[in-house]
Write a structure and sequence with these properties.
Strands 1-2 form a two-stranded antiparallel ribbon. It contains 13 helices and 2 strands, in the order ααααααααββααααα. α6 runs antiparallel to α7 and α12 packs antiparallel against α13. The termini are far apart. It has one domain: P1 Nuclease, CATH 1.10.575.10. It is globular and about 60 Å long. Bound molecules: adenine and zinc ion (ZN) (2 copies). One zinc ion binds next to α9. Adenine (ADE) binds next to α8.
């Protein structure tokens, strides 16, 4: 996602934090909010010394889209790591007392970002570098982009009505309403049924699996040819905007409850 999508995930998560998680996160971030730090990992990856973290933003599932979509860790997550192992490792690091506060703060900033990214279907897909190499148009022949960027930014930002942090806040409010009493109110319990932070890659693997299935069902149900060099701001957008919104809702709700579990584990240590 772009900064607007990540900030939306973070605003939703913040709404679901319990007291212990609020104390832990504001302590580690020395007062900064989750939305403030939600895109830090995307700047960090391009800094000197930050390149190692680029592979942590995605997992490249190698199944034959659109006929098969599945995650196989041995096949899809290389020794350098991927988003699934990164979420497990940085979750552990938030809780690791042998690290400095700055290291644990970075771990939290990574987890906030990666639990957003893992819901973006094309962050769980190998095809054409996660759709980065599928050229598309947005709103006419003048705006050339690619399918990955359309899912990261054009689709959510068109739906939310902007690309700013202020837009993210109001977009999050409308999603929180649906989580509380609307279309997501009964679904949301299934979204967090994967279990404990102590299961290592258990939950992140399930989330990657969930997002990757959507590549076959909705992102590219008829393969890349259907969208390649087409304007996807019309029927394709209409068909997929609520899928993107639901993935952002999942990210926010999953992140909020994940941070609550981390804070609970932190309390049990002492
Ligand atoms: N680089 C390689 N694969 C990618 C993916 N699935 N998403 C984003 N960047 C990538
Ligand atoms: Zn992306
Ligand atoms: Zn990212």
């Amino acid at each position: 996602w772009g900064p607007m999508g990540h900030a939306t995930v973070a605003y939703i998560a913040q709404h679901y934090l319990d007291g212990a998680a609020r104390i832990l996160t504001s302590h580690l971030l020395s007062g900064s909010s989750l939305p403030d730090v939600s895109s830090w990992a995307d700047s960090y990856r391009f800094t000197d010394g930050g390149a190692f973290s680029s592979v942590f933003h995605y997992i490249d599932a190698h199944d034959q889209v659109p006929h098969k979509c599945n995650i196989k860790m041995e096949r899809d997550c290389p020794p350098e790591g991927c988003i699934v192992t990164a979420i497990a490792n940085y979750t552990e690091r938030i809780l690791n007392d042998d690290l400095t506060l700055a290291e644990r703060a970075d771990a939290l900033k990574f987890v906030v970002h990666f639990i957003g990214d893992i819901q973006q279907p094309l962050h769980t897909e190998n095809l054409a570098v996660g759709g980065n190499e599928i050229p598309v148009f947005w709103g006419g022949e003048s705006v050339k982009t690619n399918l990955h960027a359309a899912w990261d930014r054009n689709i959510p930002e068109t739906l939310a009505g902007g690309s700013t942090i202020a837009t993210a806040s109001s977009f999050a409010d409308s999603i929180i309403q649906d989580l509380e009493t609307g279309i997501y109110s009964t679904l949301k319990n299934e979204w967090t049924s994967c279990g404990s932070i102590k299961r290592g890659i258990g939950c992140p693997k399930a989330w990657a699996q969930d997002a990757n299935k959507i590549v076959c069902s909705d992102v590219l149900p008829n393969g890349a040819e259907e969208v390649q060099n087409k304007d996807i701001s019309g029927a394709y957008y209409e068909r997929n905007k609520m899928i993107a919104r639901q993935q952002i809702a999942k990210g926010g709700y999953r992140l909020g409850l994940w941070l609550n579990k981390i804070a609970k584990a932190e309390q049990l240590k002492c």
